[in-house]
C-alpha cells in the first residue's frame, strides 16, 4: 500500500531544523508493511503546500502531513489546508474541549493562542491524545489525510497510537516485508563490496542496501513474502552467509549499538568495567550508561584531562608522562591499570589522544589515539590514527574502545587500523 | 533565486537513514541568499525519480540531487538520470582519471565497481574533488542540475567548494537575508508566546520562527534588505528587545551551544572546573570537551556509578549515602565538594539522579535529579524532575548542569523548575 509524507515549515526548507519526523514516520510505516513513495518538504507557503497536497492526492492512498499546528503565529497549516481543499475553518468543539482539559491538567490557562489550535478544516476528525497537541484526519475522495504537529514527541505519539492503526484498519493481506540491519565496524565500503562477491548466487532472494554511518557501515537486508516464518528463515540464512565472509567485522544487528553489545557480554560474563578517558572527555562512559541496566557492570570512571589528574587519580607515573608524553602507549597502559585498581573492576579501559583541532605534532598528529585495556593479569594496548573533526575523532575513538571490549571478550583480534 | 533539493535512496524513504544532507544543503543555500522551495525525497525508483526531476525542472532555477553515485550495486542514480533526461551514459574520462588518482593516493586498486562511478549522462561536467567522490553537473534548458554523492562529508565538501560558487556566479544583486537564532532554555513555547506580546509594534521588520529543540527552545529572526549594515543593525536592535523581555532565559545565539557559553565564561574568568557525574555517566564531561580549547579550564572529572566509587573517589560520607540515599541533596553537595577538592579546581559540579527506566520510587520517581555546585567557599544545590526516555533525562540533566555554570558566574538565579 503506497503512501507519502509531507512536512511543512520554513525552518525545514531553510535548513534551520533537521526533519527527523519524516524519518521516524517512514521507518514506522515501512515496518508495518506500508510503502512510502515520497517525502516532500515545503515551507509555510500557500502555493507550495497546495501543490504538494494535490500531487500527493493524485499518487497515494494515504498522506501524513506534519508541522504548523501549534499556538504560535507561524503555525498556519490549518488555514492553508482549508483553502487548498476548499473546506472552511471552523471551531472544532471536541478539540477545544480536549485542549481545555489538557490545559487545566497542566495548570495552564486557555489563552487565545491555544484556542486558535481548535480551528480546523470542515470534516476534520480529531486524533485523541494525552499530550497537549491537536492532530486530525480528513478523507478526501478515497485518500486518507492525517495532520500531525511538528513537535517530535507529539507527532510520534499520535502516529503510533492513532494514525498507524487507522491506516492498517483499511487494508487486508498486506504483503509482509522483513528487514534486518547488519552493522559492521572497521571495514570500508569497497572492502564490503569485495567480500560480497564471494556470496554470488547465495543471496538472490534478498535486496541489499549499503549505508555508511560514520564510523560504522551498515548493510540492510530486505525480504518480501506472505509467510512470516519463511522471511525469518531467509534472513537468518543470509545473515549466516554474510557473517561467514565478514567475520568479526559484523558487531550487531538491527537496533543494537556497540555499547549494547559490549554491555551484554559484560553482563553475561558477570564482569565489571571502569573507564579512564582523556581525549573522549566522558563520551565512553556516556555511551556505556545509555544502556538501561548498565549500573550492573559499569562501576564508574575518571575523566583525566590534565596530567595532574592522571597522576593523582590513576597513579600514572610522573616519569611516564615526562618521558613518553600524555599521549603514549605507556600512559594508556598505566591509565587502564590505574582505573581498574582504583575502581576495583575486572576490566579497565583507557584512551588518550589528540582530538584537535590544536595540539598535533609531526610525530603525533591530530587524531592519534592510544587505547589500553587491563583484564585479568594482562594489559593490552594499541594505537590508531583517526580523521575528521574533533567530534568525529572523539566518536571514532569511543567506538573503537567499545569494540575492544567486544573483541577481547570474544577472543577476536583487535583491529590493527581503520 | 529559487531552487530545490532532491535526495534519492530507499534507505531514506524506508526510514533507515536520516536525511541530514538536505538539511545541510538547505542551510548553506539559505545563508547564501538563495531560497529552497522544496525538498523531495524518493527511493531508487525510476518512475519516482523521473517525476521529481521533471517537477523540479518546471519549478526551479537550480536543482541539487544527492545519493546513489557510489560503487555498490544499489547506486543507480546515473542510470536513472540518463533515462529520465534522455542522455545516454558514457565513460567520463576526466572522472575516470580523478578516481584513478585518488585510488592510488589511498593505496587502493581501481576495481570495476569504482570504474562504474565514471559512467555519466551525456553533457555532464565533473565537480573536482580531493575526496574519493564523483559529483557532476548538467544544464537542462536554463536549469542547473548538480548531482552529489550521499556520503555526508563528500556531499558537504562538493556543495561548499563547487556547487555554491557555481550557482552564485550565475546571479547578481541577490537580496541579502540576515538570520539570527536566539536560544532559550527553561521557558516553554506558551511562555515565549506570552512574552512576545510585550514586543508589539517593535519588531515589525523581522520574520520570526519558533522551534522546540528539546530541551531548548529556539527563536529565529530573519531580515531581508540590500544593505548589510542595515540588516545587522536591525538584528541587533531586535535581539536587544527580545533579551529585554526574556532575560536570562536567552543563553546563546546562532551556533553557540550551552557548553560553548559555559566554557567561554570559565575561560574569560580564568576559572577551572571539574565534574562528578552519576546519572549522566560522562555526558557533561563529553559536552564540555566538545569545545576546542576546553583543556584550559576543564581539568577532569569522575563518573561515579556505584556508591563505593562515590565514597572512594569523592569522599562522600558513608552515612550520607546510607541515610539520605545516593540520589539526594546532601550527596550532590558532597560530590561537588569532593570533586573540587580532588581535582583542585575553582568549581566542582555534580549531578546524581535516576535516569530510568528502572530505579524509580514513589518519593523519587524516574527523572529525579539533584545538582550540586561548589564554588569559592559556597555550595549550591537544587533538584529537578525531568521527563522522557533515559537519554532525554540524561540530556536535560546535562543542559541544566551546564546552565548552572552560566547562571552562577553571571549571577542569574538558578532555574527553580522546568
What is the structure about, briefly put?
Two copies of one chain form a homodimer. The first copy, chain A, is 40% helix and 25% strand.
Q: Main attributes?
A:
homodimer, 418 residues, alpha/beta, Molybdenum Cofactor Biosythetic Enzyme, Chain A, Alpha-Beta Plaits, Maf protein, 6-stranded mixed sheet, 5-stranded mixed sheet, 15 helices, 40% helix, globular
Task: Explain this structure.
- Two copies of one chain form a homodimer.
- Chain A is of the alpha/beta class.
- In chain A, 40% of the residues lie in helices and 25% in strands.
- In chain A, the strands form four sheets. Chain A has a six-stranded mixed beta sheet, with helices on both faces.
- The longest helix of chain A has 20 residues.
- Chain A is globular.
- Strand 14 of chain A pairs antiparallel with strand 14 of chain B.
Furnish the topology, listing elements before pairings:
Two copies of one chain form a homodimer.
Chain A: E1 2-8, H1 10-13, H2 20-31, E2 35-42, H3 46-57, E3 62-66, H4 77-84, E4 89-91, H5 93-105, H6 112-115, E5 119-121, E6 125-126, E7 136-140, E8 143-148, H7 152-169, E9 176-185, H8 189-196, E10 207-213, E11 216-225, H9 228-246, E12 250-253, H10 258-269, E13 273-277, H11 283-288, E14 298-304, H12 307-314, H13 318-324, H14 329-343, E15 347-353, E16 368-375, E17 378-385, H15 390-409
Parallel strand pairs in A: 1-2, 1-3, 3-8, 13-14, 13-15
Antiparallel strand pairs in A: 4-5, 6-7, 7-8, 9-11, 9-12, 10-11, 15-16, 16-17
Helix pairs in contact in A: 2-7, 10-15
Specify the CATH architecture of the largest domain in chain A: 3-Layer(aba) Sandwich
User: Could you tell me the number of beta strands of chain A?
Assistant: 17
Query: What is the general shape of chain A?
Result: globular
- State Rg of chain A: 27 Å
Identify low-pLDDT runs of chain A. Answer: none
Would you identify the CATH H-level superfamily of the largest domain in chain A? MoaB/Mog-like domain
CATH topology of the largest domain in chain A: Molybdenum Cofactor Biosythetic Enzyme, Chain A
CATH class call of the largest domain in chain A: Alpha Beta
Give the helix tally of chain A: 15
Number of domains of chain A: 3
What average pLDDT do the residues of chain A reach? 91
- What structural class do helix, strand and pairing data of chain A support? alpha/beta
Report the biggest beta sheet of chain A as strand number plus sense, adding barrel if it closes: 6 strands, mixed
Q: In which order are the strands of the major sheet of chain A placed?
A: 2-1-3-8-7-6
Strand content of chain A: 25-35%
Of all chain pairs, the largest interface belongs to:
A-B, 102 and 102 residues
Distance between the termini of chain A: 42 Å
The helical percent of chain A reads 25-40%
Oligomer description: homodimer
